[in-house]
Amino acid sequence: MDYKVYKPNASEIIKAVTIYVCVAAAAAYFFYRSYKVFLIMLPGFALFYRFYVKMLGARRLKKLKEEFAEMLRAVSAGMNAGYSMENAFLEARKDMEMFYGKESMMAGEIIKIRKGLEVNMTLEELIKDIAVRSGDEDIAAFSDVLGCAKRYGGNVTEVLGTAAETIRGKICVDKEIELIIAEKKLELRMMEVLPFFILMYLRITSVGYFDCLYSGITGRVFMTVCLVLYVTAAYFAEKIMDIKV
What we know:
Blueprint: H1 10-31, H2 35-41, H3 45-80, H4 85-100, H5 105-118, H6 123-134, H7 137-152, H8 156-205, H9 216-241
Helix pairs in contact: 1-2, 1-3, 3-4, 3-8, 4-5, 5-6, 6-7, 7-8, 8-9
């Protein structure tokens, strides 16, 4: 599996379509009150779909890194118990299935490692293959360190333990950051939907108050500028909240 390429399943595609249709319908109604604008917005789904797939891919890669760190911890424990490194990797599958289920990504990767070892591929090659397919810098760094330790000698058990703690440390920091900014993200979501509630309230309580904005060139241009500013502000707000470790 190439982890750099995410292929959504049917339910995820349906969810993406539903989200975009709802957002486009809300924008067309509140900013233009025109179904024609809604139809014009529909091709924009291609851009939204790319963003949505990228988000799902990043979420999967984060999960892969978490499972990889847990696998290294299990491998290190196995080597301390007397297993060879290859057998320790194979035994780590039990831990992966126990913690993440039989369908977990690293459980599947360990099956590939076993098949690779059976056809005389080296463990370093198999780990490097995971690093290449994931595109993750931490997994790639571990692959390089493992190759050097095997080639030039060294305490491989200590290398595994250090690599696992390093990756787990990054994951913990990432989760702490998410916890810290969770309140701010909630405030951001509220601010993103607040303008629509205000417009709906004024439409109900003050009928015809905003009619001038939905007729004539001046009103259309003004609402278009408002929509562009709203989308731009939401985009940069999401960028600010996206803190990478």
